[in-house]
């Protein structure tokens, strides 16, 4: 994937993610950046994000079963899942209402060789674009702050 992968959110697929707030390997704040990519592409209707308060990296197996059922129903029957519908399907699962904090508050965006600044998505949060650039009107970083 060239030098670095930068998600664009341009997909015709339906995407459902499940992420634990206590994941120490892949920060939950990455989900905020992923949502920004879908917003910039105008595809928020194709993304559902679910969170658990526990499980670390891949230790929330009970929550994966209703998530797989939810994405299957979305693809096969066009029944878009929500936090409420997934909770109803699995009352003992511990899905969380808590959303991750903005990515830029946890990780300072930096320029990356192989990923042009204009390919980086943003939502005008602090540190959401590399130094010397700002978030533009189309949710992409722009050089020089113009």
Describe the structure.
The chain is of the alpha+beta class and 146 residues long. It has two domains: 15-102, no CATH class; 108-146, no CATH class. Helix content is 27%, strand content 12%. It is built from four helices and four strands. The strands form two sheets. A two-stranded parallel ribbon has the order 1-2. Helix 1 links the parallel strand 1 (15-20) and strand 2. The mean pLDDT is 87.
Short recap of the structure:
The protein is α+β, with helices and mostly antiparallel strands and 146 residues long. 27% of the residues lie in helices and 12% in strands. The strands form two sheets. Strands 1-2 form a two-stranded parallel sheet.
Q: How would you describe this structure in keywords?
A:
globular, 146 residues, single chain, alpha+beta, 12% strand, 27% helix, 4 strands, 4 helices
How would you sum up the major sheet?
2 strands, parallel
**Spatial shape:** globular
For the termini, the CA-CA separation is 30 Å
Task: Catalogue the unreliable spans.
Answer: none
**Assembly state of the chains shown:** single chain
Cα-atom radius of gyration: 16 Å
Q: What is the averaged pLDDT score?
A: 87
Q: Helical amount among residues, as a percent range? A: 25-40%
Helical element count? 4
Q: Write down the secondary-structure element order.
A: EHEHHHEE
Summed up, the domain count is 2
Structural class: alpha+beta
- The fraction of residues in strands falls at 5-15%
Strand tally, please?
4
Sequence of strands across the biggest β-sheet:
1-2
């Amino acid at each position: 994937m060239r030098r670095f992968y930068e998600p664009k959110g341009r997909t015709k697929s339906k995407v459902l993610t499940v992420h634990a707030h206590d994941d120490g390997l892949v920060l939950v704040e990455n989900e905020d950046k992923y949502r920004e990519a879908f917003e910039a592409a105008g595809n928020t209707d194709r993304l559902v994000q679910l969170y658990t308060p526990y499980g670390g990296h891949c230790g929330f197996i009970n929550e994966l079963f209703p998530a797989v059922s939810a994405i299957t129903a979305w693809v096969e029957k066009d029944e878009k899942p929500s936090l409420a519908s997934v909770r109803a399907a699995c009352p003992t699962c511990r899905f969380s209402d808590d959303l991750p904090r903005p990515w830029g508050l946890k990780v300072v965006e930096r320029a990356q060789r192989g990923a042009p600044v204009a390919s980086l998505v943003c939502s005008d949060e602090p540190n959401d674009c590399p130094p010397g650039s700002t978030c533009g009107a189309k949710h992409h970083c722009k050089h020089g702050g113009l």
